[in-house]
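WARN no homologs supplied; continuing
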Amino acid sequence: MAETTPITKDEIEKVVWKACDTFRGMIDSSDYKNYILTMLFVKYVSDVWRERLDALRERYGDNEEMIRRQMQRERFQLPPDADYEHLHQNRNAENLGELIDQALDQIEEANRSKLLGVFRKISFNSDNLGEAKDRNRRLKSLLEDLSVLDLRESRVEHDVIGDAYMFLIGKFASGAGKKGGEFYTPPEVSILLGKLLDAKKGNRICDPACGSGSLLIRVAEHLSKEGHHDYSLYGQEANGSTWALCRMNMVLHDEDSAIIEWGDSLLDPNSKKTTNSAGSISSLPIPRSRSTNGARTRSVPTRTSDSGAAFHPKAKATMRLSCTWLKLPCQKRGASASLCRTASCFAAVPRASFAKA
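OK structure emitted
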């Protein structure tokens, strides 16, 4: 009988952090985090898929058609040759890096609404991992290290894998020094800002410099604790690999419907209509730039109601995308946002209609 004792976040963190030894000294931590976290993601998806499949086989026996139809309704689809077990069984293959890349392509194609483009910025068959022989040795070691983890839902309590993922992103950020701030906000800051925002039911929450998504996730957790699940998450990130981490992070926290765009929020704010996985149309509420007589100006939002979007640009001085710039009243202090320094760039504001360019 399979073990059902819950696996703790500490156990996951220790195993995965140990797996990092495979890459240390070979490539920078800001780069190898993508390989580690991507493979952890594949391991989690594979374990969940196999547990569901085993349960259906026990229930329906040899009725393969019924099993197939039930598995098609799963949150994730996992092609036969793309799961972790298949990769582990082929860990001695001479083209291991190529096999992993092919598996990632299949996973992405089978889950286009959630993962389209997520794995295209990383290659396990890259020369960055060394010559073929050394590369295969490192990848084999990585597969063996993570194989000891059992991430089935019956063993992993809710949010454990997501919290472990966030912990590892934070560890990589710490190792990257000041550059770590580009893709990770410390949890203490994220939790504080999430509470300051005080998002409400029905809010549309946007972070135009979302990094790996920690701020958005903390806000979503705050809403969930209040018993509210009627909200929408939007984000945009300029760095391709960080954007991919954010997409995976959202999935691991059951925020599949979050719309995370790739691009520079200042040069190309993604306010175009985007179709989410459920087929509904949402609009990323970021005002676009427009040009008047050669000078760049920005349209200013106007109030239309006291309910609606919660807008929380991250406080980055280089972006200058703040409540001070938006000239919106601060809902938390009842004063002008320009007077707010504690919660600048992170105040809950009314739904706004944006002037057309």
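The first helix runs from residue 9 to 19.
OK
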